[in-house]
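Final report, Chapter 2: Outcomes

The project's central promise was a pipeline that accepts a single protein chain and returns its three-dimensional structure in a standardized token representation, suitable for archiving and comparison. That pipeline is now operational. To close this chapter, we reproduce one record exactly as it appears in the project archive, with the input sequence first and the structure output second.
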Amino acid sequence: MRPWLALLAALVLTACDSGAPRPALLDSRPPPGLGPRFLAPEGWAWGAIQPPDGPELRYGVTAPAGAARRAQVLILPDSDEPAEVWFETAADLTRAGYVVWTLEWTAFGGSGRLLPPYDMVHPGPPGTAPQALEALITQVIRPRPDRPLILLASGDAAATALATLARQTPTASVILSAPDLSNGAALRPWESLAVRVGLGRLPSPGWRPWSRTASEAAMAAGADPWRGRVAHSWRLANPDLRQSGDSLAWRAQQTQLAADDLASLRTRPTLVLAGKDVGLASAEACRETLGCRAAIQPQLGSSPHLAPDLVRDAWLAEVTTFLDAQVPPAAQVAGAPGAIE
């Protein structure tokens, strides 16, 4: 049998194999040799939230030690990165007195994987991400007026953040970091047909199983040489974090997403951080929206939290300045140091 026929047969068999969901990873192993600044902040803990349908989603949390709680920040990572790449930023924010949370979507990062092959991204049931985000906020985080919650959504997580906030979720303010609201590339006719006849589990063209070589080469444009390797290091040490491409069904679900207009956030202070080639459309929409401020930093790329110090420091200064402005005066002294109630 010719190699391409063997591959096609394997893919069809995979599409017909029901498999079983894989649970969330709640004990990721630190990569050997990784610098301390890229490891979990002190007191970091993982948890999981179970949507009505689909596998469980992983969240993380840490609180400042020896400092009064000011507010809470929920980081929503872009789908191309595990939450572990945000540890350095989480540590920066906890040192500033914020409780920091993260949440990952179905099939991304350490959240549960729906179907094999587990390194291919398969979509959860429609609406899972906004429902899970709303449940985490209302049932686990439970923000209060004296300890408000600010969302920090990165890349394509901006679409889910906006969809959730349109449901009047109790969130005080929002930061969209290098937002990507493009909803992915449209499917070709044969790909749409495959999804309609039940073959959505087939991979998008060009998909290959996860490999160390490809993972090492996948560094975000403009990333710092050390920070850019953090995701690869965590995936090398933790096979459950690996992902290498999308299924047709995932792309079909993405193209059907309709990002909510930024105008729906008029009641919440909003900051949009954009670069020369990243998030400019969102920045322009922000400028036309009451209560929204756009900060365009020309050198800012798709992953500013992983950029070299000069770019990252400017990005972090914008984030912390905005966060500080959202803190109620009483929150600066309220609560026991480092406690999560």
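Archive annotation: Residues 44-183+210-243+257-328 form a domain with the Rossmann fold fold (CATH 3.40.50.1820).
This record, like all others produced under the grant, will remain available to the consortium after the project formally closes.
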